[in-house]
């Protein structure tokens, strides 16, 4: 495994991507591994964040994604009250074609070389079985199977946390913490999205879904005939009568094209980095659309994998994830008090916690 030298890194970074503590470019020729590990902050503790396996178009795109995701994890972990900083790793390649046991073992050695500064877990393109393999070379691995001492699939509590954030959004907008009678559009019904649909149906919501994978759509509609499906996200966001839009696939769902035509009163979903660029949060606020910050409401999964490091207890984690309801309400209140969008309010709270941790460390 090799760290990229400063000259190589300089060609991959933009001037607005600074502030990270450490970025490691990893390569193992024997297995074909190419990966980026980004540590944004360890102010609150070891950086914690998942591993994304994705066929990036370029190394620059992979680095940019790792940096953005790592920063998001710092804020997510801070808002979740965890004693962890933020980090993220991306493996460059098609997981359907390039993922092998040998590659995952090589990746585990790369993470282990950081000596515990980074704790990894699952993300897009990686699964519990993959973390079991990585853990054979790296003890700083979570999201493992119960058979191997882990907590298993974290998507269950991720969806539960998003549902709590959605309940808080409903309370803020309509006075009742329920989605009963509301129409919720879920874009992406994969690992997390299909669990979210179950919560919404149990709560009495009308659910409309879309996904690029038709088998994922069919799994929902065959089990729940009341769920409607539309062809794509473009149709979903323009749907008349839509109350809540839940982006649950990849990031950048809220951008200059989607925000102007979005019909929903609120956005609350599981996807990371939903805001395509700074300023989108203001565009949402200007249109009267309530945005529940993604890294706040989707923190159920990281709450679970963090707990795994101390001996996993599902009910303890579920109780912590349930607090996402109160945290989301407190962000809406802070936003109103400061006259800023909820995303900015969440950032201020998270940044203050990290700053307090740094100050406390300096004072010891």
Automatic annotation (TrEMBL):
Any one of the GO BP annotations: branched-chain amino acid catabolic process
Catalytic activities: L-valine + NAD(+) + H2O = 3-methyl-2-oxobutanoate + NH4(+) + NADH + H(+)
Active site positions: 88 (proton donor/acceptor)
Amino acids binding NAD(+): 188-193
Any Pfam family hit: ELFV_dehydrog_N
Compartments where located: Cytoplasm
Gene Ontology molecular function: any one: valine dehydrogenase (NAD+) activity
Keywords per UniProt: Branched-chain amino acid catabolism, Cytoplasm, NAD, Nucleotide-binding, Oxidoreductase
Signal peptide start-end: none
SMART domains per the UniProt record, alphabetical: ELFV_dehydrog
PROSITE patterns in the cross-refs: GLFV_DEHYDROGENASE
Pathway of action: Amino-acid degradation; L-valine degradation
Catalytic EC class: oxidoreductase
Transmembrane segments annotated in the record for this chain: none
EC number in record: 1.4.1.23
Glutamate/phenylalanine/leucine/valine/L-tryptophan dehydrogenase C-terminal domain ranges (all copies): 152-361
InterPro entries: Aminoacid_DH-like_N_sf (IPR046346), Glu/Leu/Phe/Val/Trp_DH (IPR006095), Glu/Leu/Phe/Val/Trp_DH_C (IPR006096), Glu/Leu/Phe/Val/Trp_DH_dimer (IPR006097), Glu/Leu/Phe/Val_DH_AS (IPR033524), Glu/Phe/Leu/Val/Trp_DH_bac/arc (IPR016211), NAD(P)-bd_dom_sf (IPR036291)
Highest taxon listed in the record's lineage: Bacteria
GO CC annotation terms, alphabetical: cytoplasm
Family the entry assigns: Belongs to the Glu/Leu/Phe/Val dehydrogenases family.
PANTHER family membership: LEUCINE DEHYDROGENASE (PTHR42722), VALINE DEHYDROGENASE (PTHR42722:SF1)
Subunit structure: Homodimer.
Full protein name: Valine dehydrogenase
């Amino acid at each position: 495994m090799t760290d990229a030298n400063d000259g190589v890194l300089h060609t991959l970074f933009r001037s607005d991507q600074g502030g990270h503590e450490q970025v490691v470019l990893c390569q193992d020729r024997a297995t074909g591994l190419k990966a980026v590990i980004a540590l944004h902050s360890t102010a609150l503790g070891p950086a914690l964040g998942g591993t994304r396996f994705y066929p990036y178009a370029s190394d620059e795109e992979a680095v940019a994604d790792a940096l953005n995701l790592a920063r998001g994890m710092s804020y997510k972990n801070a808002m979740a009250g965890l004693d962890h900083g933020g980090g993220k790793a991306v493996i460059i390649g098609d997981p359907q074609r390039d993922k092998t046991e040998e590659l995952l073992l090589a990746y585990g050695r790369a993470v282990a070389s950081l000596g515990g500064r980074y704790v990894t877990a699952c993300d897009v393109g990686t699964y519990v079985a993959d973390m079991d393999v990585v853990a054979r070379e790296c003890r700083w691995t979570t999201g493992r199977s119960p058979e191997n001492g882990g907590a298993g699939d974290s998507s269950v509590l991720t969806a539960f946390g998003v549902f709590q954030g959605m309940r808080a959004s409903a309370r803020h907008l309509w006075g009742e913490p329920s989605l009963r009678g509301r129409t919720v559009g879920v874009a992406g019904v994969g690992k997390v999205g299909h669990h979210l649909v179950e919560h919404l149906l149990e709560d009495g919501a009308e659910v409309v879904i879309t996904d690029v994978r038709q088998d994922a759509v069919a799994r929902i509609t065959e089990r729940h005939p009341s769920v409607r499906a539309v062809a794509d996200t473009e149709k979903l966001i323009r749907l008349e009568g839509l109350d809540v839009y839940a982006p649950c696939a990849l990031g950048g769902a809220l951008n200059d094209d989607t925000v102007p035509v979005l019909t929903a009163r609120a956005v609350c979903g599981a996807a990371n980095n939903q805001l395509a660029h700074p300023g989108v949060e203001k565009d949402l606020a200007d249109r009267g659309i309530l945005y529940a910050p993604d890294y706040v409401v989707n923190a159920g999964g990281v709450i679970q994998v963090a707990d795994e490091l101390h001996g996993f207890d599902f009910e303890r984690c579920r109780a912590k994830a349930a607090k996402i309801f109160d945290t989301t309400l407190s962000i809406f209140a802070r936003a109103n008090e400061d006259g800023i969008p909820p995303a900015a309010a969440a950032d201020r709270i998270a940044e203050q916690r990290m700053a307090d941790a740094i100050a406390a460390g300096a004072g010891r």
